[in-house]
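re: ur question from earlier - yeah i can do the single chain one, its not a big deal. heres the input i used so u can compare w yours
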Amino acid sequence: MGKAEIKTKVTDTAVGDFIASVPDARRREEAGLIDALHRRVTGMTPKMWGPSIIGYGSYDYRYASGHSGTMCRAGFSPRKAAMTLYLMGHYCDRQPEADALFARLGKYKTGKSCLYINKLSDVDLDALEQLVALSWDSMNKCYPA
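and the output i got, formated as tokens:
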């Protein structure tokens, strides 16, 4: 059995071109705001990961099964159904202060390391930025550069 190809990897697509191509005007504007938020928190210029994830930084991982790869340390995707933020640090090291931030955040749903927001107007942007910063700091502790 061959090794599975990792589909989510850095591409040559320009982030600005991708954001400009988001069909929904509100989602396109929100993508610009979330990009600016991530740039403030991370201090990094993003890259496209796969066809639709805007990612900041990277880290190498290896599971106990032996599966390994590289993924962005932080990122988001302006998907049609919801703005999806990848809070990878909350998956590896959920910190107690995150609970208070999630309580302030507003309307959202979560997955293992994903935060789904229908409209940015439904959330507290300061709490959101603090959650992204908490996740970023946690990733940097879990996976030192």
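Residues 15-142 form a domain with the Aspartate Aminotransferase, domain 1 fold (CATH 3.90.1150.200). not sure if urs matches, ping me
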